[in-house]
Amino acid sequence: MKSYTAQCVLPLAAELGEGPLYLPGQDRLLFVDLKRCILHAWDAGVHEHRSWLLPDYICWLVPRRDGDGFMAGLRDSVVRLWLEPELRVETVVRVVDGAAGQRLNDAKIDPSGRLWLGSMHNTDYRQKVGKLFRLDPDQSLRVADEGYHICNGPTFAPDGSALYHSDSFLDVTYRYPLAADGSLGPRETWRRYTDGGSPDGMQADSEGCIWISTWGGKRVCRFSPEGELLAEVQLPTSHPASLAFGGEDLRTLYITTAREGLSAEQLAQEPLAGALFSARIDVPGLPANAFG
Question: The pTM is what?
């Protein structure tokens, strides 16, 4: 099994580092500190960091095909988001009932430009209120599946034929056949995790293998399309949360991490908890798909 070494890029101490998005034309990584309502930007070429404070939780952001800002997930809504010349937010659709303790969690764009997003209860993870939604380019919203505790992922086979999505509470990743019209086939169990750590953020690489952050497991794993463990990136902190491919060759794996859920003793032992990490890998990733 291949093993990679992670390096600390930015010692941020994020409470819940999530939603990384690499912008190749700018050599910029955007990512969020979800519950602190902060959007971060790391400009790798010039080693500069800046941030924006949002009006609520910010869970993720994804590019638009027209290049006019981003789509983003706040606590209960999908919004359009602009960073320049100043921060601007415009609500697109309310998705869940934030007043009832629900929130959005993770999202990705499929190769056809559709947005897939998950939800969960904000504090009581035993509740099966999580849903997998699909937002089409015409901004119509559909429930694709439900009965989740903690939705994480998703990611897609490079040819768009399958969707992978996890319930982190159950330590399981599912695989769905994905049709050209966006409909899902029957949900099947792709992998169960019994060796420490729960599946969190994920990305498919150019060979169709799936990289998954293992919350509580101190590592990011690369699995074959059949679920066989092929490689791992070891981290000096317990909670890697999400990942994105970056660099000119898409062989830099950026990894966001979290302090959430760690005791004072654990935090003392893991001074880089919440930092942004990177690792150089052998197989290139795929560029982020865009909405629209």
Answer: 0.98
pLDDT in tens, 216-236: 999 999 999 999 999 999 999
Report helix, strand or coil for 100: helix
Q: Which of 33, 76, 110, 200 is catalytic?
A: 200
**Burial bucket for residue 143 (CB in 10 Å: 0-12, 13-18, 19+):** exposed
Chain centre to alpha carbon of residue 235: 17
**Which residue has 């654990």 as its token pair?**
266
pLDDT band at residue 12 using 50, 70 and 90 as cut-offs: very high
| Residue 91 buriedness (CB in 10 A; 0-12 / 13-18 / 19+) | exposed
Residue pair 86/76 in contact (Cβ under 8 Å)? The answer is no
Domains, in order of start, for the chain = 2-280 (2.120.10.30)
| Ramachandran assignment for 85, one of left (phi > 0), alpha (psi -120 to 50 degrees), beta (any other) | alpha
What b-and-e string marks burial along 157-192, b requiring 16 or more CB atoms within 10 Å of the CB?
A: bbebebbbbbbbbbbbbbbbebeeebebeebeebbe
Q: Are 255 and 235 in contact (CB under 8 A)?
A: yes
Single-letter amino acid, residue 36: R
- Residue 68 bears catalytic tag: no
